[in-house]
Amino acid sequence: MSGIGRAGATVAAGTLVSRITGLVRNVVLAAALPVIASNATGGAADAFAIANQLPNNIYAIISSGLLAGVIVPQIIQAAKHRDGGSAFVSKLLTLGLTALFAATVIAVVAAPLLVFAFGSRLGPEASALTLAFAYWCLPQLLFYGMYALLGEILNARGVFGPFAWSPIVNNVVSIIGFLAFIWLFGVQEGVVGWTPTMVAVIAGTATLGIIAQAAVLLFFWRRAGLHVRPDFAWRGIGLRHIGRLAGWTFLMVVAGQLAGLVQTTLVSAASSSGASVAAMQYAWLVFMLPFSVIVLSIGTPYFTRLSEHVAQNRPDALRADLDSATRTIGIFMVGALAAVIAAILPISRVFTTGPETAVSFAWVLAAYLVALLPLSFQFVLQRTFYAHQDTRTPFVFTLVQAILVAATALTAYLTLPVEQLAVGIALGQSLANIVQLVLAVALLRRKIGVLGLGGAVRAVARFVIAGVPAAAAGWGVIVAFGGPTGWPLQSREAALLGGAIVGVTALGVYVCILAILRAPELAVAGRALRRFRRR
Questions:
Q1: Among candidates 340, 337, 364, 356, which has minimal Cα distance to 425?
Q2: Which residues cross the membrane (predicted)?
């Protein structure tokens, strides 16, 4: 477990710094393009959100679908070859980059169709601005894919740090570019009056950051111990086997993207009227902050370990890792959830222009937070299927989730007023994720038998018992500060300070209650934090 701990600490440190700088990046972007429009001519943030979402969707496909689910186990097995897997990785890189380049060209050519698909309910001015942004943002596809491909290869070779640390470069580049935009052009809320130079600065900055993020990984390639060269002789790489595995992953991704398309298309009707595409994206970014720092940091090294245990046919070790990963993720995630719930108003104010829009944003974020714990635990279960080179089963429960996401989004669109549309769609997403977790547990039990997670479930129950009063204590501080109209919501600077005070209060109460309950996982978490500080 020491190797898992060291790798997890490295990933956690890089992820934490990258997420903090990413938070700053998004705060600066929200300052340049206000998230929730205050008048009928607003919506520039929604236009940019839709355009920048297009390559981000493909990145999510690559990083958490095909590469993580199919490529990592293949690279681990290829490491047993006499050349250490260099020939396999050479073919893989050549094939992957060729496919990425072709996909990028097709996406740029199809930009008008993509914008129409995701923003069909936007007005003509907003649609034109979205398309202008999209032409600058879509080339990110190639570099997002390159980053994910190189990063997963490094992870499979036991080099975990660069993949987690390189996004910091992207964030720094973006912060500089977005600040330059504010300095040159000021705050832009409306969708009219945009010049080609303005579009190039804001969208070109986003793309330049992704290019830098991918290029940084090349400086760490020597650590992988692989000697690669362009190799277009793809025969013998196992394309039929990879294709069979990737086929289910591709269908899973298609299902998820279609559900996302429904969500974005429907919620774009609320642009210029309240919380819409940009608000949902920023709320999702906040939602993913603890998930990325904690779950990905712990789960990424565990995935390599799970793949090794499956290859060695060690089911008892596999179950032990499932139990350990669930406990470790649980103790951190429940504490993070309590802190975020308590500080939800000042957190929301960081991304908005006033107390009223902060409350609107907070409702969207709260709807997402319903599924924070289920999504965290589902991550480990899904990676266990991937370790068994089973991508068909994850497709099944993801298909059910996607259908529920689309159905609940349509229900919200037909039944809720436009001002509450984003909240209803986000809540539907959370309910679908809960159903997905239940299905994943049932299907994994059918695949490998008893999961041995009884102790982990009882441990999570202890964490929740400690988390409820912790969140209440933090909310009490908000009430003491004046509630929704108090000083923490009067400015972004005050929101950061107030949110920090509330979050620290909630976490302190959480740890104290766990100590009173004598939770054994508290000592494990303490050791993990000490390793993190040393790293």
A1: 364
A2: 27-51, 57-76, 88-116, 128-150, 162-186, 198-221, 242-262, 282-304, 325-348, 360-381, 393-415, 421-444, 456-482, 494-517
Angstrom distance (rounded) from CA 439 to CA 251: 18
3-state secondary structure of 42: strand
CA pair distance 264, 99, nearest whole angstrom: 27
Q: Which amino acid makes up residue 502?
A: V
Contact 293, 16 (CB under 8 A): yes
**Do 284 and 26 meet the contact criterion of CB atoms below 8 Å apart?**
no
DSSP class of 41: T
10-residue mean pLDDT profile of the chain (535 residues): values are 53 74 92 81 86 80 53 62 65 79 90 89 89 96 86 72 84 96 92 93 96 88 67 61 64 82 90 86 91 75 72 80 87 95 95 90 96 92 83 88 96 93 96 95 89 88 95 95 91 93 95 89 66 54
Burial degree of 215 (CB within 10 A; 0-12, 13-18, 19+): middle
Task: Identify any residues that bridge with 15 across adjacent strands, giving them in sequence order.
Answer: none
Cβ burial, residue 454 (10 Å; 0-12/13-18/19+): exposed
Other beta carbons less than 10 A from residue 139's beta carbon: 18
Closest CA to 352 of 419, 289, 275: 275
Residue type, 403: I
CA distance 324 to 472: 28
Quote the tokens at residue 433: 């994720």
- Residues with Cβ within 8 Å of 222's Cβ and at least 6 positions away in sequence, in order, are none
C-beta of residue 253 within 8 angstroms of C-beta of residue 61: yes
pLDDT at 306: 74
Q: How many residues comprise the chain?
A: 535
- Spacing of C-alpha 38 from chain mean position: 28
